[in-house]
Amino acid sequence: MESRVVSLHIYPLKGARAVDLDTVRVQSRGLEGDRAWMLVDADGTFVSQRSVPDLTGLTAHHKTGDSLELVWRGEHHTVPQPTGPLEPVRVWNDIVEAIPADEEANSWLSERLGRTFRLFWMPPTTHRQVDPVYASEGHGTRFTDGYPVLVTTTGSLQSLGLDIPMNRFRPSIVIHTLDAWMEDAWDRIAIGDVELRLVKPCGRCVVTTIDQDTGVAGKEPLTTLARLRKQGSKVLFGENAVVEKAGTIAVGDRVTVLSTKDASPSA
Question: What confidence tens digit (pLDDT) does each residue in 232-260 have?
Answer without folding.
Answer: 999 999 999 999 999 999 999 999 999 99
